[in-house]
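Structure ticket #2291
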Amino acid sequence: MKMSITKKIARVVILVQTIVMVTSCSDFLNIDNYFDDEFNIDSVFTNARYMEAYMWGAAAMFPDEAQTIRYGYTPGPMATDEAFNGLTGGGSGNVYYGMDFATGRISPDFYGDGNPNLDQWGKYYKIIRKCNSILQNLDRPKDLTNTDRLRIEGYTRFIRAYAYYNLLVDYGSPILLGDEVVNTNEPIEYYDRPRATYDEAMDYVCEEFEKAARLLPRPDEVSTLDFGRPTKGAALALIARLRLIHASPLFNGGAVASAYFGNWKRSTDNVHYVSQQYDEKRWAIAAATAKRVMDMGAYKLYTALKDDKTPALPEGVTSDPNFYETYPDGAEGIDPFKSYSDIFTGEAVAAINKELIWGRNTTYINEFISKGSFPPSLGGWGRFCVTQKVVDAYLMDDGRTKEEATADGYYSETGFTEQPRFFSGYPLNSGVYKMYANREMRFYASVGFNEAVWQALSSTTLNNHTAKYYYQDADGRGGVTASSPNYPITGYVIKKFNHPMDAWTGTGARHIQKAYCIIRYAEILLSYAEALNNLTTTHTVQLGDQQYTVSRNEEEIKNAFNLIRYRAGLPGLTSNQLSEVSEVQKQIERERMVEFLWENRRYYDVRRWGIYEETEQEPIRGMNPDGATKETYYQRVIPSTSSFLTRVVNKKSIWLPIPRAEMRRLPSLDQNPGY
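Resolution: structure written out below.
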């Protein structure tokens, strides 16, 4: 018996009331199918509550941004030189698509063995269609006030722009639909249309974010209960991120753009998809858009105050005369370990953390990333690995590179520490390999190495565990179940997202709730410094009613960059470094690698810089998992792996391929180069 209209309406009212109570984007409920099943879709637009529920339903279709490793929606860290995993090569359990991408398995016909997988193209266009439907019908609900209409328009434009953003960064130039609601059941000719050029798409997406920003609330106007909803700051920050990408060598003319895209032209009009003409003004726009976010006054780097457990700054640093000044003028007065670590472990409350421009609550970090890094003897998988290259990128605690610190023995790959240390709540055993001694605080906050302590303090029976990765030990290659991949094949795991209380086994074991940083203020500062560093003359940039005059100002570069370094307890750039454009770029590249470790930035950075092939051609290295003694374990080796783990370097790997099914349906749709 069919449900009466009255009962149908009652059910929808109850459903919508539930949705209105939801405040985090991680909990958005997709009711599109409900409306399709119970009503003609036009019923969505009969009142304000239905329309808003439909809007958040569109937002709910986005993947969890933390989902970058297992069942990833994007290639993510494991498709770069910052991460590695010993499990891939096919099968329902091998759902690490970044490894599949890096080893050449992804194609227009295959996006991963599980579901969801890397094929997100169609989903993003479904989101866009829903947004276009809302924008087309904004005037229909009679109970929609003008204030609410503008608010819904702002969120809808952001959601649509964010769908295009994801298409742009992962697939390259999208098909731009504008405000068109694509009809169903039309002849194939109706749907056939070409892709935009990269410049056209970039300008369109940024302009859509601009329109959204004018309607969205400022971050200080949003309740902590609404953490996860986009704000004006989120829209402007994503513009800054996109404009930096647009200015970078891969997309801005010159040798790199020519090498990758010189022969890639739109088949319908023979126009280059990616501009082959260098334009310095793009760097100026990138700098101005980053400065606009800085000038909002709404964001700052998170810091934790120094206490009696904070390690003293190293003595004798002379490279930076401001190093011993109080933060933000120097590195004194804060706890550099906690100031970084708290952001990711759940210790800092995400909803009030002014470094998070946009983030979301998530269970994915605990369920997968924490599980993947925890030692097997504590209930984890122990195989979400960091590479030796990352370990080598971390500076010493006095700001020197490991090479610079070798001469006086401050860095050594011979011998072991004699005394234990305990700083900032972090225990460091004696007998630790000297490679891991005297390193900057972000290293200890981020990397789990052989004989590091996993505190697991919520467990009263299994805690303060020293993970030993020697071959025969419980967490080593020979100590786990035969043929198991659950050991750190490089000798290092990602520890960045683990709180000292987190535990998987033992009495009372639990995890601290985490939030994932989609974009944070540290990125804006480094983007600003990078954009300024690439300018050779003064430019004026108009952003709405704001005008910015930008040039390569060493003081501005230093101030932005050094805030990151000081927060990490490190000295800032020297005057000699600042005077050299290439040296500043080198420092920015190193800083982004360690600061944003496993935050899904490295994959895009090495590509936009035009160094993807260079970074991938270097073999992944780590310690020797077959070593049973200190002497045999602590050797730099290329992990012995199956052919499934052989990384493939190919220019086509700049982007994902467009699904072959889409290519067949749309004759004017050009595939990405190399596929």
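Closing remark: The radius of gyration is 25 Å.
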